[in-house]
C-alpha cells in the first residue's frame, strides 16, 4: 500500500477527487474543532493529508523524512477504517478512535471521522483527524454520569426544537440561544411562525406538509430566524416528522450558518485547488529519464521534483525500474523501492506508454502490509475490552483488556455464551435474563446499544461495573449477525460518583447530614409519619465557640466541632437525625419523640454532654449550648424549612435570655420575632418619613439647681404601633447598619437646635449626645462631628459626647484612638452608665474623659441602702481624683438629690428634675440671661 501526501506551493492543500462535493468536505470539517483533513483512495490504496496533520500527530512537517513518518503513522492509524470502508456502501460515515504515541513519547488519542465516497471502481475515504485526548479522558470519567441521548440533544451546538399544532413544545439550550431568549420559558408555547421571517414561512409550511409519515425528513433548507430583540440570523434547518405525547409533531434541527456562509466561498475556492492524486505519478522519456514528478512522488520517495527531473527513474526509486519492461509484462508489477535514507517501500507499479515515453503510477502499499500485521497488535493493546460474539451467540475472541476486566482467559471464554460464564446485573441490581443481554438484543434486532452501565459478576466472585457498547460487526451480514462488544471498567469512577453524592449531602468536617439532607429527610418524615407520632426539631448553637475559634484558631475550632458532633450523635437514638447547618449550628430531628418531658430530658442530656470539658492540644476547653425546640404534632402542616426556622427563632430567644439554656417555640415568640423584623424594616423608613424626633432632658447643677446642659434622646412615633420604646428600637438600630445614619442625623439636628436656642435665649447650656459602640467603629465619626460643629456654629466645648462603659471596654485601644481624635476637636467626653462594666481608675485617666455618669441602678438605692451610698461616694471620690465632673442619672425624689448634694456630686438628671420633652416645651420656659 502506498502512502502519498500531495501538497503544492500554490495551494498548500490536500489532493482529493474533483468530484467530491463541498458539502462532504464541510460536513466533515464541522465535526471537529482542531483537525486535519486526509483522504484514502480505496482503489489505489493511497493516502493523502493536509499539512495540519503534522500538528495533530505531533510530527514537525518540515522535511521529507518527517513527511514520510507522517505517512507511515497515518496509514497505520486509519487501517481499521480502510478495511471497514471496503465493505460498506458509498456515503457511509465511519469513525475510529486510536491510542497513539507521538515521536516525543506522549500518549494521545486520535479520532478519525470519514465518509465513503465514489463508485465501486473509484471509491475513497475523505476524513478528518483530530486530537481527542482530553475529550477521550473526560468521556472515560463521565460516561456513567449522564444520559447520553439527553446530553446529545441538550448540549448539541445545533438548535433542536419540537412544534406541535403550530406551537413550540420543546427547545434545547442551543435553540434558546439561537433566538436570543433568556430562558426556555420565553420560547415554549410560542407559535413556530413567530420565529420565522415572513419570507420563509411559506417554504417552511410546504416542507413540513410534505412529511406524511413518522421519521420522514425534509431536505436541509435555509431560513431566516427571527430573534428576541428584533435581529435575524440565517439557519440551515431540517424538519423531521415525529410525535409529541401521541400527537403528530415536527422536530426541527437548526444550525446557525451565518458565519458558515461567509466561509463557504473560501472553502469552495480551497476545494478547487486541492489536488486529488495521492499516488506517485512519474513521466519518463523512452530511455527512462524522468520528465515529470508530482507532489505525491515527492512524498513517497522523499525527493523534490527539482532533484528528480532529468535523472534516470531507477536511480531515483533505488531499484531497477525499466518502464518498457513493465509495459511488456502486462503493465503491472510489484517491487521493493528505497528512499534516499534506505527506507524500504513496497510499491505497486502500473506503467503505460504515452507518446514517446512512459507514465508510471507508483502506489505505496507499505502501510497496508504493515497494517495487516499490526491490526491484531492494535486490538490487543487497547485498554478497552473488546469481545466478538458470533451469530450463534458464542464468544469468538476477547482481547487482553477484556480478559483482564472480566477475570477470564481467552481459552475459558471462547466458544461459551456470555450468559453462562458472566452474569450481568442492571443498575437497580436486577439480574439480566439471557435474552436481555446487549449482545443478544443487538444480534436479534441489529440496533446498536451505547453506554449501557452494567455490573458483571466475575468467576472469581468479584464484581466490576462496565460501560458497554454493542454493535453489529458487519451491518451487511444476514441475520443473525456477529456483534462486537466494547467496554471499559468504570468501577473506580462509580465509587467516586457515589462518594461525591455522599459529600453533596453531608458536612465535610463532621460527616453529619448537611442542611440539604436534613430538609429532605425531615420533609419526608413529616409526609410519612403516623398520626400518633410527634416530631421534634432541636436547633443547637454552641456558646463561647466564637471565642475559641478566634483566639485559638480554626484548627482548634474544627476539632471542637468534630467533638461536639460526636457527642450529639452519641446522645440520640439510632433513628434520630443529627445534622450540621453551618458554623457552630447543629440540628437534631427526633421522630416519634413521645411527650414534652422526654424532649426536655433529651435536651438537657445533650446540653450536659456538650458542656463537659473538651481537651484539645493539651488545653481544656468549655462550651455550652443554647437550644431552640419545635414540636410538630400530627396535624402540623409546616414544611421542613419552617420547622427549622421556628427552632432557630427559639434558639435565638434562648441566647437572648442568657445563653446556656433551652427554649420551646410558641406562636407568641414567632410574633415577637416577626414584630422585631417588621420594626427593623420600618425603622429604615422612619427617619425619611419624619417619625423619629428628639427629646431633651435637663441636667442640673446639684449645688445651685440651675440647668447646665440637656441630654438629647431619640423618640419614635410609629404610625401603626404608636410610641415605640427606645429600649426596643435602639438595639435594632445597633444590630443593623442603621445606627450610624440615625446617629449622624441626631448629631446634626441636636447641634443645630441647641446652637439656635443658645443664640436666641443667650444661654450657656451644653448639649449631651450619646454615641453607640457601632458609631465608635465608624471611620467617618470624627469628620462628622467636625462638620456638624462647623455647620451649626455650636462651640466645641458646648458639646459632650457620651460613651457607655461597655463600649469603651469592648476595644479600649481603638476607643482611645477615636476619643483622642474627638478630644482634639475641643468637644467634651463622658463615660455613661459607669459602674456596670469593668472600668478602672487607670483606664479613665488614659481615656482623657471630662465627665463620669453614675448608673441609675446605684442612684435608685440611695436613701435605702448604706452600701449604695458608699458605692456612690467612692465613685464620686474616684472621679474627682482625676478631675472628672460627676453626673448622677435616674434621680427620682428629693431624698436622692439631698444625698447627692451631701456627697459632692456635681450634676444630676432624672424625672424629679425634669422629664424628656420637645425643644419647644423645654426652652421657652427658661428666661434668657440679662446683659
Average pLDDT score: 84
The gross shape turns out to be elongated
Total number of beta strands: 37
Largest sheet: 8 strands, mixed, barrel
For the biggest β-sheet, the strand order reads 29-30-32-33-34-35-36-37
Q: Which residues sit in consecutive blocks of at least 5 with pLDDT less than 50? A: 1-22, 269-274
> What fraction strand?
25-35%
Describe this structure in words.
This protein has 931 residues and is α+β, with helices and mostly antiparallel strands. The chain has 35 helices and 37 strands. It has an 8-stranded mixed barrel with strand order 29-30-32-33-34-35-36-37, surrounded by 4 helices. A 6-stranded antiparallel β-sheet has the order 17-16-21-20-19-18, with helices on both faces. α3 (64-85) crosses α9, α3 (64-85) packs across α13 (366-381) and α20 runs antiparallel to α21 (554-570). The chain is elongated, with a radius of gyration of 45 Å. The N and C termini lie far apart (124 Å).
In short:
The chain has 931 residues and is of the alpha+beta class. The strands form 7 sheets. An 8-stranded mixed β-barrel has the order 29-30-32-33-34-35-36-37, surrounded by 4 helices. A 6-stranded antiparallel sheet has the order 17-16-21-20-19-18, with helices on both faces. The chain has a 5-stranded antiparallel sheet with strand order 2-1-5-4-3, sandwiched between helices. The radius of gyration is 45 Å and the shape is elongated.
